[in-house]
Protein 1
Amino acid sequence: MFYLAVHHAEVVAHKVGEPYGTIILALCITIIEVALIVSLMVAGGEQAITLARDTVFAAVMIILNGIIGICVLVGGVKYFEQFFARTSANVSRKYCFYFGDYFSSS
């Protein structure tokens, strides 16, 4: 069912062209994801109260880890060695602790 919806969105995106086609595809995927999360929350009852927050947090973490991994890979191929700055690592660590506290307290 979802493949059919994405297929139709892709056909419309090809007819509309860039950049509107990309926006249509992104909206289609977002609507499908929201519908899945809402249906799981409705079916889950009281156990699924934090499902939306946890799902969005997991998706953000997967995307950010993928971006960082691609950056490290491309940088390693281009420069053969990566530079590590302690100050940037400390800032990154502080943000991780801050957002970890924020998400765990809500």
Protein 2
Amino acid sequence: MDVKELVRKNKTLVEYKEKCINAYTELLNIGEELHKLEENDWIKLREKGVNDAINFFEESGFTTLSNDNKYVFTLFNTIIKYFYDGEDEMIMFPIEVQPNQIFDTVQIRHSSEYDSMLYWKYNIALNGNHVYKENYEDTFNNCDDLNELQKSYSKLNENIENYKNTIKNISNVKYIYSLYKQDIECDTFKELFENHIIG
């Protein structure tokens, strides 16, 4: 290898390190923008989770008592306790049905068909080691494998485009009722309650 080739190779290496750092930074910024859009939905979904339960039980003849966002629905000797116990994207409502000894957790989340829109398409790794937001600048700067940097840069750009597309189409994301840590997907609270909680 002649000296010009060596200088060109080193220059290309430095350029790809900078490209990767800039692309990772852009991805983090776009991710933050997406997160803010989702936060607006989470507030509405928490309200929906409460209102759908109240409407369902009251239409079924239950009386409703509420205290500090905790709800108790009663009809004869059937008592159902329901309250919000989540955080941000974890929209969860523990539910208890007595005297039947049924305990579960209702979750409102996006339908699994939208996973590819809301998560990175590719994890970013250099030589098998994941790159994290806490260390991405050092990780890219310490990498001297041009091929790894080029692959990472390509994956970062695909993640960026995926998130940009998600932001444009965020209103299309469908949210469903489910049970925590289960693959159940229901369109309504009624369907979840009757078919999977007491069904």
